[in-house]
# Entry
Amino acid sequence: MTSAIPAAVQWPVFGFVALVLIGRYLLVAQTILDRLASRALLLGLLCDLLRNDTVQRAIAAALWMFDDAYVIDLARQASFGPLLLSIMCLFGMARIATSPTDESTVWRRQRRYDAAALIAIAVMLAAGTPARAHGMLIDEYHGWPAIIVWLAYYSVLGASSLAIIRIMVIELRSGDNTVREIAIYLVVLAYFGVLALESVYLPAQTVAAVLTDSPARDPSMQSKALSAFIALIVGAAILTVPLLGAVVVRAGWDRPGRHCRAIRPLWRDLTRVYPEVVLERPTTDSISQLHRMSMEIRDCLVRLHRYVPEDDMHGDLRTYAHRISAAIGAKRSGQPPRASSPGRFTATSARRDLAAELAELVELARIWRREVTGSELQRELLRS
# Structure
């Protein structure tokens, strides 16, 4: 069918989905689940593109050696193929959730699912030949070819939907799901519940209509075009959420990224004094970067410990920041370090859990930026 949805609605949606796909392939492609989800969305986009009037005419123009009407009818029938393959991707994702395994096994299993879908598509295209020859849609031509087409299509769709429903029920009954996971499972359960009902009702309706010589209820098949378009929008919206999270992390707007920016002035000044502590291997995510910067700051502080008098090791963070400054000044002025072995140069906080240490470090960096690096004397001492 050619979708009756206005082009002014279709093309912005297509553009949005294309942007989501590009973003996901660049930022959200770390796991098999990520790649299968993006693949499912891409196939859903291809399905709706094949139902767009402009795309159909462009395909007919590209295949100018064949009859335009026949090529367009073939594109209409072929549009169900990407939809089945997309469902197979979702089925594969559900199987991974309950039967995690290595990547090679997952892709080998996925190829079997795709093969089942491709067999169904081949049967559909073969059975749809008479309709294409008469320049009609499958439900317009009707008859036994329509029965074969929809039995092939809905047998695969129904079987995969029931399998996904079973997997979702098992996950919901496990009792160890987060609220977000439960919400996702319920949405998936509702969607595939509807598809499972359609997989029984619509083929039965087609058989009954053919046997009683009644016309199809939707010969233009617009309800199928609308449901696929809505599914594309919903799928793109769901897959946008992890993409936005990845963008936030990449831009450094997440919590670890904000902490990195907060401690950077302190890290920069300390690593100028001890550049050898900086790891050469760059980090690609804010969590790893925060961990690395924290460790490098503490390495510098341990080394500065020997430039602080034995009786001047503790104090509040404000005092501590100025002691760090004095230790840097002592080192730069050529003062020899104490001969004692390196110890821990810390403020008075007794808490040693990671969250407390990070909070202390962020507060120290704030004091450092406000009170120490603003000093003309300190700028001179810290100048490389």
Q: What stands out?
A: Residues 131 and 138 are 6 Å apart (CA to CA). The chain has a mean pLDDT of 83. The chain has 16 helices and no strands.
